[in-house]
Amino acid sequence: MNQPAIFDTNRLILRQWLASDREPFVRLNADPRVMEFFPTLLAPEESISMIYRIEAHFEVHGFGLYAAELRQDHTFIGFIGLNIPTFDAPFTPCVEIGWRLAAEYWGQGLATEGARAITEHGFQQLGLREVVAFTVPANLRSRRVMEKLGMKHDSADDFDHPQLPSDHPLRRHVLYRLSRADSSSSAPEA
Ligand SMILES: CC(C)(COP(=O)(O)OP(=O)(O)OC[C@H]1O[C@@H](n2cnc3c(N)ncnc32)[C@H](O)[C@@H]1OP(=O)(O)O)[C@@H](O)C(=O)NCCC(=O)NCCS
Description:
By secondary structure, this protein is α+β, with helices and mostly antiparallel strands. 30% of the residues lie in helices and 23% in strands.
């Protein structure tokens, strides 16, 4: 399989994971601000396992959740990329776009900037017809990124996350979709 692409945006490099990303990734997943809309904080070994799973996904599919670093000083700030969910839902199989950044770097348009490069790659190079994104209704920051990418929310697509117990407060999710056709015509500015 070809080497996965590396992306340069104005302010970011999206690349394969390095051993030096592990420590800041462990910190990021242990930060209650970052994990507010996830069931639990991650223990260090869970963060490392997640990196292994991400790397395995790249091996199998040639794309995945890229490590994101700042171009100006090469600081690792989180991930932005594409992922194939492993659970069954009415909208699967699908390719989702995902993002998780350290809280110090929020609010500067970085997630949107990286996600734009990734969706364009997905549509133009990988030939995807659609990407989806999902989160809990209260995750307004993430939903705003989806909206800025031009993704569309139809409440008929909302779903209960099958990997959470039926009474879990984070079970309900909203789904956003972006088709290749819509992406080329109408993505709004950041
Ligand atoms: C979601 C996340 C990646 C966004 O990263 P980011 O780089 O701050 O995103 P951007 O700056 O590109 O856009 C964030 C938008 O949310 C808006 N926003 C921030 N806080 C908000 C709030 N409380 N309510 C509504 N909108 C909010 C910002 O104003 C910005 O929109 P704008 O450009 O129109 O002003 C980041 O908050 C994060 O990593 N969160 C924790 C992990 C997570 O929840 N991941 C998503 C799981 S689906």
